[in-house]
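User: Show me a protein chain along with its predicted structure.
Assistant: Here is one chain, sequence first, then structure tokens.
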Amino acid sequence: QVQLQESGGGSVQSGGALSLTCAASGDSISNYCMGWFRQAPGKGREVVATIAINGGTLYPDSVKGRFTISRDNSKNTVNLQMNSLKPVDTAMYYCAANSPRFGACVVNKYSPYWGQGTQVTVSS
């Protein structure tokens, strides 16, 4: 069973950048589909990036071109590089993992493994 720990959150001004890291322990992330999610106060948890075991990535339109997810299996980490940050990006950011099933790599809000989250605050 994998355990996840996020780091790298903080406060930045609009247009700034932050890099988040998800460090895994207990198992190798090479066995998991990985993703980053966020949740703003009073809103539901939404996906911001996912990366499959083969390295394929997916982003919602809201962050496409600004956020980049990557994985380093040798370090057992997943990174989220966030550029051109906007105040609407303010949220708690969570790392998640899920095992592939029937050849499909799906990471969503029902994924079984989650970190504790790291806060990102973007001021205007």
